[in-house]
Amino acid sequence: MIGKIVGLGSYLPSKVLTNKDLEEMVETSDEWIVERTGIRERHISDPYTESVSQMAVNAAKEAIRDAAIDPEEIDLIILASTTSNMVIPSCSCVVQRETGAKNAMCFDLNSACTGFLTAYNTAQSFIEAGHVKTALVLGSECTSNYVDWTDRGTCILFGDAAGAAVLRAQESDRKNMFVLHADGRRSDCLYAENMKQRKDPEELIPKTFFQMDGKEVFKFAVTAVPQIIKELCTKFSIDKDEVDLFVLHQANRRIIEAVSKRLDIPLEKFPMNIDRMGNTSSASVPSLLTELKKAGRLKEGTKIIASGFGAGLTWGASYIEF
Ligand code: UT7
């Protein structure tokens, strides 16, 4: 058994923050941001109407419509988020309540920007083991809540969004093909702490913002992503030249260009929406898949390698056939 993606959906907050807007907030320029990151604008959620769980519900409803299934058929919901608005219950339980997926078991996971791929492969493992027939997998992020809007090294990068995929069990000769890695020794490259339980939150508030060593994360990404894609191809005898699309976590256009060059694969095979979305962490891969489907670029049999990477450090790659 393997889970086939039969539905995709996404949600983007309506408020757009352009590079020009950021010029008013920190010492930066549209030119610098575009040249160093490829980002032109990002979407910022409304704290009252566009929380991680609310955005996830919207993406989930679109994915369920796209899959043309009854929500009661869903056996499992896994939501990946680094910026969840819920401590308890999990956001996946909110998604369950709001979509009417009353037969699903639900849990959230946090694997930073690798979150969607981690959730996707976890769902695939439930399907392969025969426990689940239909799964809903989501990535949803309000990164804007964790951004220090006075730090030009991070505030220009991030954006808010949610994406969702419905997987359906299908007889198959092949197993789900994936590789996931983590290196917790390098957690100081990118982190944010939850200070709610401490006594003096005012003083500690800066620690709740994303703290990032951008150069280190950049070096990690341009090395680890080509390596893990090669590892995936070797492990499962995939010919990388036969892969149609490489759907990478959208963190920086220069990272994607470097991966394309290091793998010697044309950049046209690396779709991007980073210019309009910025880095939306675990929401980037499912949002981009949704865009590709809407643009008619995902046909029956389209071969994809998806890859995520980020805080942890964590990184992963999956082979997905439509
Ligand atoms: O999901 C994973 C999450 N994170 C990432 O993927 C981040 C990976 N890293 C990056 O994308 C890049 O490292 C950044 C975009 C964050 C930074 O780009 P960079 O080319 O590595 O710049 P830098 O940090 O080396 O800074 C170069 C210069 C510095 O000035 P000096 O010291 O050369 O005078 C910075 O102070 O650019 C300056 N700078 C800026 N200037 C204008 C840093 N941020 C900005 C800014 N606007 N926003």
Describe the secondary structure blueprint for this structure:
Layout: E1 2-11, E2 15-18, H1 19-23, H2 30-37, E3 41-44, H3 52-67, E4 76-80, H4 91-99, E5 105-109, H5 115-128, E6 134-142, H6 152-155, E7 160-170, E8 177-182, E9 190-191, H7 201-204, E10 211-212, H8 214-235, E11 245-248, H9 253-263, H10 274-277, H11 284-294, E12 303-310, E13 314-321
Parallel strand pairs: 4-5, 4-6, 11-12
Antiparallel strand pairs: 1-7, 2-3, 6-7, 8-13, 9-10, 12-13
Bound molecules: oxa(dethia)-CoA.
Oxa(dethia)-CoA (UT7) binds next to helix 2, helix 6 and helix 8.
Can you describe this structure in just a few lines?
The protein is of the alpha/beta class and 322 residues long. The chain is built from eleven helices and 13 strands. It has a five-stranded mixed beta sheet, with helices on both faces. Strands 8-13-12-11 form a four-stranded mixed beta sheet, with helices on both faces.
What does this structure look like?
With 322 residues, this protein is α/β, with parallel strands linked by helices. It has helices at residues 19-23, 30-37, 52-67, 91-99, 115-128, 152-155, 201-204, 214-235, 253-263, 274-277, 284-294; strands at residues 2-11, 15-18, 41-44, 76-80, 105-109, 134-142, 160-170, 177-182, 190-191, 211-212, 245-248, 303-310, 314-321. The protein has a five-stranded mixed β-sheet with strand order 1-7-6-4-5, with helices on both faces. The radius of gyration is 19 Å and the shape is globular. The model has no long low-confidence stretch (mean pLDDT 96). The chain binds oxa(dethia)-CoA. Oxa(dethia)-CoA binds next to helix 2, helix 6 and helix 8.
